[in-house]
């Protein structure tokens, strides 16, 4: 591979070092995303160059953990993109209602807001008691926060608006209790969520599921990695299962484009063909 400048080579060597030392593979992530995060951490930490930072990564586990947090993707919110959740209610819930038991995979669940959103939606549609939600991420700190289900009060106004716009049927406040500056999601929403550490880049299929939600994660992967992850999703879905992606993501340029039909192209919801 030819590198335009020395910093590109240094970034490549740094990612290789992270993979060999810690097993986290960022080598096929979007170069623009990775470069931005690495240069930002380099500036914050006062390193003169990436090579100096690589030495610290290899010899200082706390710093390596800090960099791994930088490189992971934890941008999320409750009922993110309300029109997407409205489409789930209208076009996916009727499909899920045909199954006696339902398995849902939230891949790259970050701090859990979207998994709780799905639990609320399923509860309102009378499906939660027969559903298991597998919420996975490789970022253990994010998973720990997700398990706690504690979110800042400052976010609740936006989350409430999202919930209402998504077609929510109750008062959003009935799903949490306030505690000082935070809210705690109800225990009833947590009972059927299985939180698990899973890396989309390096791990394999772990369950056969009816619905996969992986929204706004693939945009950080290069084309080759996106295709590998789509293979993982395809092999995890039952025939007739549903795949939901983010608003800027698509299956069009993957090997699996012909294997799905469109349930809602605008909301990036696809159904695996029989």
UniProtKB/TrEMBL annotation:
SMART domains per record: MeTrc (SM00138)
Listed GO MF terms: S-adenosylmethionine-dependent methyltransferase activity
Gene3D superfamilies to which the protein is assigned, alphabetical: Vaccinia Virus protein VP39
Keywords: Methyltransferase, Transferase
Biological process annotations from GO: methylation
Limits of the CheR-type methyltransferase domain: 1-251
Protein name as it appears in the record: Protein-glutamate O-methyltransferase CheR
Organism, scientific name: Flavobacterium sandaracinum
Species classification: Bacteria, Pseudomonadati, Bacteroidota, Flavobacteriia, Flavobacteriales
């Amino acid at each position: 591979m030819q590198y335009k400048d020395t910093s590109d080579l240094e970034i490549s060597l740094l990612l290789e070092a992270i993979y060999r030392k810690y097993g986290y593979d960022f080598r096929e992530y979007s170069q623009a995303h990775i470069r931005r995060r690495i240069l930002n951490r380099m500036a914050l930490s006062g390193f003169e160059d990436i090579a100096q930072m690589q030495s610290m990564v290899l010899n200082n586990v706390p710093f390596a953990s800090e960099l791994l947090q930088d490189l992971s993707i934890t941008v999320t919110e409750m009922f993110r993109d309300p029109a997407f959740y409205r489409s789930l209610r209208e076009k996916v819930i009727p499909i899920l209602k045909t199954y006696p038991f339902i398995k849902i995979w939230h891949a790259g669940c970050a701090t859990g807001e979207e998994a709780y959103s799905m639990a609320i939606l399923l509860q309102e549609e009378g499906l939660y008691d027969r559903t298991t939600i597998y919420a996975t991420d490789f970022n253990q700190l994010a998973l720990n926060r997700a398990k706690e289900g504690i979110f800042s009060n400052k976010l609740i106004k936006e989350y409430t608006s999202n919930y209402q716009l998504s077609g929510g049927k109750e008062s959003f406040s009935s799903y949490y209790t306030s505690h000082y500056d935070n809210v705690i999601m109800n225990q009833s929403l947590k009972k059927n969520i299985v939180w698990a550490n899973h890396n989309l880049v390096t791990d394999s299929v772990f369950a056969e599921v009816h619905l996969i939600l992986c929204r706004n994660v693939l945009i950080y992967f290069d084309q080759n990695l996106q295709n590998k992850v789509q293979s993982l999703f395809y092999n995890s879905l039952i025939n007739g299962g549903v795949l939901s992606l983010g608003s800027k993501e698509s299956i069009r340029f993957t090997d699996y484009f012909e294997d799905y039909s469109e349930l809602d192209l605008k909301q990036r919801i696809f159904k695996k063909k029989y």
